[in-house]
TrEMBL record:
Name of the protein in its database record: Universal stress protein
Domain of life: Bacteria
Cross-referenced PANTHER family: ADENINE NUCLEOTIDE ALPHA HYDROLASES-LIKE SUPERFAMILY PROTEIN (PTHR31964), USPA DOMAIN-CONTAINING PROTEIN (PTHR31964:SF113)
InterPro entries in the cross-refs: Rossmann-like_a/b/a_fold, Universal_stress_UspA, UspA
Domain (UspA) ranges: 25-85
Pfam families listed in its UniProt record: Usp
Record family assignment: Belongs to the universal stress protein A family.
């Protein structure tokens, strides 16, 4: 394995671990009595979200924003726009 391949593999493992921690922390904030499930997927964000929704026949996609200012938040990011455009599911964007 080359140094580049090794470093890339280590970076990917690190990002996967960070993603798992983010999901664990988010799930801990869900009120008791609510059955929350988390999933960690890899890929292009909008495509991965839409494909996951189709595969799992979800009822609702909830997305957040990056905390941009009021003028910038008036325009959705490309991931939000793509998810709204390419899916048939109800989508809620929280600002």
């Amino acid at each position: 394995m080359s140094v580049d391949s090794y470093l890339l593999n280590e970076i990917l493992k690190s990002h996967h671990h960070m993603g798992e921690n983010i999901l664990k922390n988010a799930k801990e904030k869900v009120p008791s009595g609510i059955d929350a499930k988390t999933y960690l997927e890899e890929g292009t964000p909008s495509t991965t979200i839409v494909n996951f929704a189709k595969k799992n026949n979800v009822d609702l996609i909830i997305m957040g924003t990056r905390g941009l200012g009021s003028i910038q938040s008036a325009l959705l990011g490309s991931v939000s726009q793509d998810v709204i455009h390419y899916n048939r599911y109800l989508t809620s964007i929280s600002t």
